[in-house]
Amino acid sequence: MLRNTKVMNRFDLTQRLVAKLKDEAVVGGIGFSNFDLWASSGGQRLENFYMLGSMGLAVPIALGVAIAQPQRKVFALEGDGSLLMQLGCLTTVAAQAPKNLAIIVWDNGMYAITGGQATPAAQAGTDIVAIARGAGIAQSAWASDEAEFEALVDQSLAGDGPWLIAARIDSERAVKQTPRDPVLHRQRFMQGMGVRGA
Amino acid sequence: MVDTTTKTWHGIVLDVLKRNEVRLVTYVPDNVLRPVIDGAHADPYFTAFAAAREEEAVGIVSGAWMAGMRGIVLMQTSGFATLPNVLASLACACQIPLLMMVSERGTLGEFNLGQALVCRTMRPVLDALGVEHHTIKRLDETEFIVDRTIRQAIGTQAPACLILSPLLTGGKVLS
Ligand SMILES: Cc1ncc(C[n+]2csc(CCOP(=O)(O)OP(=O)(O)O)c2C)c(N)n1
Q: pLDDT tens digits, residue range B5-34?
């Protein structure tokens, strides 16, 4: 499974995801995950939250959003290194079983933003999808290529989750950087969630 | 005002959470917090569940607040000690009124040296980050402190921490 998946590109896949979205929330994890989300959205989508320094917390933040707004689909975009830091959250997601949550894991096997050091999981040949299934997220799958990634996103948009989609990606750095303005991101996201007026 | 002659501290806490529409209760358990946790689970008003780690619970409650649902994280002193990074980078940096309730171990009869030591880091961390905190010692002050702390956190969009002293809860002693 893991061995047969194509090595794709995070910016390309993030653009494919964003192109399918309407009012879904997206929480971008630390570093390149949210940088490419910013670039893919032209900095425009109010429904995106750009998480700037809390490594590993994209999934918990997205779970909180999903619990607060069960009618809205919520995506968490997380790097493999970040997910490794907070693996327990997969069990929390499985236990709460939010129908409206989809987790996307960008697996480049490394901590790219800090210099490309291999993660222990890459060295060990750990299968993140197997971990997620073992944690109790039954609908967890590797996207074997771009077409399957899109098909899995379509499924998660149409059906009940929780879902986990993992994609092997190359070591490319993000194309742009997200502005480092946490209050602005929080404020805009709350507007996007309909909690605050424009 | 709640009737403090018949009320327990945990009964007051649950009442005040409800009155302030704090519905989401996430926690990593602690023995002293048990009645709050049990009470939240027993009352359908609350969505209550355990997270695997306190940081995760902070992420969940912060995400929920941004999407319109108020919540609180319950933990023990040792759990608080895992939080400085998420407090700085998420709650403080984004101005999120993250509510925390910490059952205080490490003082007034502690038997575990590690708890006694880690307890000493809690208030310095809160002070360093400028996070409002109050230690609740008396039953008759519980309602006022909890209620006003929640309101101020929300009104000023700032995280806040309520520390439950063994003077209030009885704490935990070696049996
Ligand atoms: C708690 C914590 N530890 C370490 C760091 C430093 N750090 C920032 S990003 C990062 C790597 C993130 O790796 P991954 O999620 O795989 O994303 P990638 O860089 O590969 O896109 C590290 C180690 C941090 N910000 N916070």
A: 569 999 999 999 999 999 999 999 999 999
User: Rounded distance, CA B100 to CA A165, Å?
Assistant: 33
Residue A114: φ, ψ to 5°: -95, 10
At the fourth CATH level, the homologous superfamily of domain A10-192 is Thiamin diphosphate (ThDP)-binding fold, Pyr/PP domains (3.40.50.970)
The chain B residues in contact with chain A (CB within 8 A) are: 24, 47, 49-53, 55-69, 71, 85-86, 88-90, 93-96
- Rounded to whole angstroms, the Cα distance separating B75 from A195 reads 28
Report the residue among A111, A168, A173 best suited for mutation to probe ligand 1: largest number of ligand atoms under 8 A from its CB.
Answer: A111
Regarding pTM above 0.90, the answer is yes
Q: Residue A30: CB within 6 Å of ligand 1?
A: yes
Asked whether the beta carbons of A148 and A87 are under 8 A apart, the reply is no
Q: Whose CA is nearest to atom 3 of ligand 1?
A: A55
CA distances from A147 to A5, A13, A16, A105 (A): 12, 10, 10, 16
Beta-sheet strands, E only, within B21-171: 22-27, 47-50, 70-76, 99-103, 132-136, 160-164
ipTM here: 0.97
For chain A, domain boundaries:
10-192
Helices (H) then strands (E): counts for chain A: 9, 8
